[in-house]
Amino acid sequence: MKELPLSKAYQFIEPGPVVLVVTSLHGQPNLMAMSYHMMIADGDRPLIGCMLGSWDQSFETLRITGECVLAVPTVDLAPKVVGIGNCSGIDTDKFKIFGLTSVTAEKVKAPLVAECLVNLECRIADDGLIDKYNLIILEVVKAWIDPDREECRLIHHKGNGTFTVDGETLDLRDRMVKWSSYVQR
């Protein structure tokens, strides 16, 4: 074994895909790329923990409005996602610059992103860890999927501008005997 710098540990733990955090303040939507998130609870009241930098415009907008959309892009959108993550919504209309289509959401004021595979409308469920860790717990209040989307592979941030792409799926449902209620047949 060789020592791994602590700053690299996240590269091997972070399982979730890169998502776009969509916020809106005074009718002005904004996007940011984020890969620091985790499922906290599933079922009828899904909870997602996410960490945003306090320096980001989206962080402040989310704190003010208490709501956002988490849009899940696919690999074909990777160059746009990286571009979104490398500019500020303070001086950039990211929907316009990156050629993305906003769609009115049903339960929150932030728009959905038409080009994304999945859009999750969210509201802040718990803000008790924001000041200490910038950790926000979101409740998903409405979820959307584009069933006709041909490209469904997600991208995962590995650090330093590198990403992995979903690949082969292993089907081990027949071995899921202890938690069979989680297996869809």
Automatic annotation (TrEMBL):
<dbReference type="InterPro" id="IPR052174">
    <property type="entry name" value="Flavoredoxin"/>
</dbReference>
<dbReference type="InterPro" id="IPR002563">
    <property type="entry name" value="Flavin_Rdtase-like_dom"/>
</dbReference>
<dbReference type="GO" id="GO:0010181">
    <property type="term" value="F:FMN binding"/>
</dbReference>
<protein>
    <recommendedName>
        <fullName>Flavin reductase like domain-containing protein</fullName>
    </recommendedName>
</protein>
<feature type="domain" description="Flavin reductase like">
    <location>
        <begin position="12"/>
        <end position="163"/>
    </location>
</feature>
<comment type="similarity">
    <text>Belongs to the flavoredoxin family.</text>
</comment>
<dbReference type="GO" id="GO:0016646">
    <property type="term" value="F:oxidoreductase activity, acting on the CH-NH group of donors, NAD or NADP as acceptor"/>
</dbReference>
<keyword id="KW-0285">Flavoprotein</keyword>
<dbReference type="Pfam" id="PF01613">
    <property type="entry name" value="Flavin_Reduct"/>
</dbReference>
<dbReference type="InterPro" id="IPR012349">
    <property type="entry name" value="Split_barrel_FMN-bd"/>
</dbReference>
